[in-house]
Amino acid sequence: MTITHHPDTDLIVAYGAGILDEASALLISVHMALCPTCRTDLEIAECIGGVLVDSELPSLPVDAVTHTAIAAAAERPRDPGPAAIPLRGRGTDFVFPQPLREYVGGDLGDIAWRSLGGGIRHFPIKLRGPSKARLLNIPAGERVPEHGHKGTELTLVLSGSFYDRGSWYRRGDVEFTDEATIHQPVAGPEENCICLAVTDAPLKFRGWLARLAQPFLRI
Ligand SMILES: [Zn+2]
């Protein structure tokens, strides 16, 4: 499995600092379960979060403190972590990584889908806070009606694939869209596309967190 579309650095840093809304945190945790690259970035982000929590932010030379801590984290030998979850759910394997199974109480076969019309189905996930998370089930080859967005949306592929605005998104990939996006994704032809979508999340962060971390991350 090769993941080519990762969440923005801002989101990983905010997740590591524990300041994401619940729906976005769920999506990022599912991506982490599938993506060794971002798990490495998260380790650094958590270090940044720890430093920020531990420090009296306004009165300390934060840049110096943080850079030292980040550099130490970046230079530590990497634990490769648990192996990425297999591409498809077969036998005893799961389609849904553990954080998602805990939220929905089971795996793909346990979902009580509700129709959205046009063969597309969904399953809202109960969460705290204003942002919303739901599973989407789009039939193979089906074109989602063209639509825009009132706010930001994060979409993570769990099974199958979709094509949108010049790119394919497959298991583990995350697409980010905002108010400026008008699009018409189409599910891949092989099988239904199962996604986790998060909408209305407050995803805009003060960019300095990410800028601080950027020299040490992959971007
Ligand atoms: Zn990733």
Task: Furnish the topology, listing elements before pairings.
Blueprint (H helix, E strand, L loop, with lengths): L8 H8 L5 H13 L1 H19 L7 H14 L22 H7 L9 E4 L2 E6 L6 E7 L14 E7 L1 E4 L2 E4 L3 E4 L8 E2 L5 E7 L8 H6 L6
Antiparallel strand pairs: 1-2, 2-3, 3-9, 4-7, 4-9, 5-6, 5-8
Helix pairs in contact: 1-3, 2-3, 3-4
Bound molecules: zinc ion.
Structure in words:
The protein has 219 residues and is an alpha+beta fold. The chain folds into two domains: 9-84 and 205-216, no CATH class; 98-199, Jelly Rolls. The chain is 31% helix and 21% strand. The protein has helices at 9-16, 22-34, 36-54, 62-75, 98-104, 208-213; strands spanning 114-117, 120-125, 132-138, 153-159, 161-164, 167-170, 174-177, 186-187, 193-199. A six-stranded antiparallel beta sheet has the order 1-2-3-9-4-7, covered by helices on one side. Strands 6-5-8 form a three-stranded antiparallel beta sheet, with no helix packed on it. β5 and β6 (167-170) form a beta hairpin. α1 (9-16) crosses α3 and α2 (22-34) packs across α3. The longest helix has 19 residues, at 36-54. The radius of gyration is 18 Å and the shape is globular. Residues 56-62 and 78-91 have low confidence and may be disordered. Zinc ion binds at residues 3, 6, 31, 35, 37-38.
Bound molecules: zinc ion
Largest sheet: 6 strands, antiparallel
Overall morphology:
globular
Query: What is the CATH homology-level superfamily of the largest domain?
Result: Jelly Rolls
Q: How are strands sequenced across the largest beta sheet?
A: 1-2-3-9-4-7
Structural class: alpha+beta
The number of helical segments is: 6
The N- to C-terminal Cα distance equals 20 Å
Name of the CATH architecture of the largest domain = Sandwich
Which sequence of SSEs, written as H and E, runs from N to C?
A: HHHHHEEEEEEEEEH
Strand content: 15-25%
